[in-house]
Amino acid sequence: MSDCCQWIGFVKKVIRFEIGLYKQERMPLPLIAATLIMANKQIDRPTFQELWEEIKMLDILRFAHEKGREEGEEKGKKEGKEEGKKEGKKEGRIETAREMVLEALEESLGIVPVDVADGVMSVSRPDMLKGLLRQAVKCKTLEDFERMLELANRRIAA
Fold first, then answer.
1. Are the C-beta atoms of 102 and 120 separated by less than 8 Å?
2. What is the extent of the structural domain holding 147?
C-alpha cells in the first residue's frame, strides 16, 4: 500500500474518530472541520469532498435536532398554557359558585356556621353547587340546608 493511501486511510480514521467524539458531545464541530482543512493538502479531492459532506451532514442534523426540540418545546408550552387557562377558568367558576351558595345561605338564614361553610367549600362539582344554590335560596332552616349538603357530599364521595 502506498504512503498516499495510508495517509488517506489515517485521515479518514482521525476524522471519523473525531465525529464519534462529537456525537458524544466531547468535541466541537469546528475542530473536526479544522482537522480536515489541515489535512487538505495530504488527501485527494474526492476523499476531502466525502469527509466534508459527512461533517456538513452533522451540522445539518444538529440544526434539525435543535429546531425540532425548540418547536416541540413551543408546542408543549402553548398546549400547557391552554390547559392551564381551561383549568383556571373551571376552578374560578367553581369558586364563584361556592361563594354564591354561601352568600345566598347567609341572605336566607343569617350567619353560616363554619362547618357548613367548610362543607360547601368541599363541593367541587358544578351541578351539585347549582343544586345547593337553589336549596340555599329556598330553605327555611339551617337543618334543611345541612341535609341537602350532606346528600351532595355523599353523592360526591360515591
1. yes
2. 86-157
78 belongs to a structural domain: no
Q: For residue 144, what are the CA distances in angstroms to 88, 95, 137?
A: 32, 23, 11
Contact 7, 14 (CB under 8 A): no
pLDDT in tens, 81-140: 888 888 888 998 999 999 999 999 998 888 889 999 999 999 988 999 999 999 999 888
Which long-range contacts (C-beta less than 8 Å, at least 24 apart) are formed by 111-120? Answer: 113/142, 116/142, 116/145, 116/146, 116/149, 119/146, 119/149, 119/150, 119/153, 120/149
Rg (CA), the chain: 36
Q: Are 58 and 97 found together in one domain? A: no
Asked if residue 77 belongs to a domain, the reply is no
Q: How many residues does the chain have?
A: 158
CA distance 54 to 60: 10
Cell numbers placing 75: 408546542
Q: What is the pTM of this model?
A: 0.52
Could you tell me which residues come within 8 angstroms of residue 74 by beta carbon, excluding any fewer than 6 positions away? none
Does residue 98 sit in the same domain as residue 149? Answer: yes
